[in-house]
Amino acid sequence: MSKLPQITTSIFSVMSQLANDYQAINLSQGFPNFPEDNQLLEISSRLIKQNIHQYAPMAGVPSLLEKIAWQTEKKYNRKINFSSEIIITAGATQGIFTTINTFISNGDEVVILDPSYDSYEPSILVAGGKPIRVSLREDYTPDFNKIEKAITSKTKLIIINNPHNPTGKVWTKTDFEQLETILEKHPHVMLLGDEVYEYITFSQPHISFNTRPKLIDRTIIASSFGKSLHVTGWKIGYLIAPAQLMNEIKKVHQFQVFSVNSFSQHVISEYLELVDFEAISKMYQQKRNLFQELMKDSKFDLLPCEGTYFQIVNYSRISTKKDLDFAKELIQKHSVAAIPISVFYSDHTDRHMLRFCFAKTEETLYAAAEKLNKI
Ligand code: PMP
Ligand code: GLN
Questions:
Q1: With a 6 A CB cut-off, is 17 part of the ligand 2 pocket?
Q2: Which of the ligands is closest to the CA of residue 117?
Q3: pLDDT digits 0-9 by tens, 6-57
Q4: Cis peptide before 340, with omega less than 30 degrees from 0?
Q5: What phi-psi label fits residue 6: left (phi over 0), alpha (psi between -120 and 50 degrees) or beta?
Q6: Ligand sitting nearest the alpha carbon of 224
Q7: Whose CA is nearest to atom 10 of ligand 2?
Q8: CB 161 near ligand 2, within 6 Å
Q9: Is 30 a pocket residue for ligand 2 (Cβ < 6 Å)?
Q10: What is the DSSP letter of 41?
């Protein structure tokens, strides 16, 4: 008896495995391939010898919680209580899963916006909830008419991923205002803001739920140090939520993982004092610009990328194949791995789109673009 009969292996595992099998350049799964910041490595080698290797407190190492509160106030001008409104999680993945399993029970509806990140639907199903999948518009902006129509008396939660994976779209102030207007009529609906790419936006600054007082009392925000600090393998992130919601989340978290690995918490706590998030955003902007420049004469049509480290492209001028088949062909014949977009839709909408991750060294981007330009 399966709780998830329709769910197969995650597209990220499938594509990274294929990339390895065919020794292709892996622009599929989203992870950087450049070295971590030396300062982070230096803190790590110093702290590894210290007595910090036993269980961390359940919600997280207090100094790290304090730094997150400090950083949240610095960036978003929002004061949060570090001991009652933050929890450290094993990546945003666990934060999202725990949030959903804290608040969603049998029959509760959760609205997610397609193309939607692959962990949302299974997490909702495990909790016994019902995913209500609402497509974004063709240009990947939110369709508030559709969102409003999807809300019923059973709707418990709406998940908003901004900046958006896989499309690279960023929500505007008007988007938030429209959401606020709708939700005024539905006080029973909670929000989960998946903001793992909060530090990676280009043309306009990221608007966080942290800065929306009308919504904040019903919002849980998920973030990821893996994404923000290029240590995806450390699997460390956090949730921010009002104390009464966080209290419930902690009840589930303590029996799911109890606490998250202590070493990375101590390292990140020190590193947060040094890290320059603006520089990280600029570094990704340069990579985006380089990749776009290198690809401009290719037969792939590049869509705007406003945030995240993903570039989506349309390949209709090259092939009429389904995107999953074309992505496999790209690995096997051209040695470059990408992510097909149809897998993020419940109805597998296929608009011949692929996602390339540009969180890579310049050398990798040049090598990949050379291959892609030959197609
Ligand atoms: N949400 C989105 C939109 C993501 O792209 C990812 C992948 N980083 C996650 C959540 C999960 O983050 P983590 O690796 O910290 O679990
Ligand atoms: N978030 C990463 C991506 O979008 C993948 C994370 C994972 O492999 N689960 O590529």
A1: no
A2: 1
A3: 999 999 999 999 999 999 999 999 999 999 999 999 999 999 999 999 999 9
A4: no
A5: alpha
A6: 1
A7: 30
A8: no
A9: yes
A10: H
- Give yes or no for residue 228 having a pLDDT over 90: no
**Domains of the chain by range and CATH?**
11-30+277-373 (3.90.1150.10), 54-271 (3.40.640.10)
pLDDT on residue 236:
98
Contacts 24+ apart (CB under 8 A), 18-22: 18/328, 18/331, 18/337, 19/331, 19/337, 22/331, 22/332, 22/335
Say yes or no: CB of residue 12 within 6 Å of ligand 2.
yes
Q: For 244, phi and psi rounded to 5 degrees?
A: -70, -30
**Nearest residue CA, atom 4 of ligand 2?**
30
Q: Are 298 and 373 in contact (CB under 8 A)?
A: yes
Nearest CA owner, ligand 1 atom 5: 165
Residue linked to tokens 């999680």 = 89
Give the residue from 355, 250, 369, 267 showing the smallest Cα distance to 308: 355
The whole-angstrom separation of Cα 80 and Cα 85 is 6
Whether residue 14 contacts residue 222, with contact meaning beta carbons closer than 8 Å, is answered with no
Which among 220, 233, 221, 234 has a CA at the least distance from the CA of 268?
234
Dmax (CA) for the chain in angstroms is 59
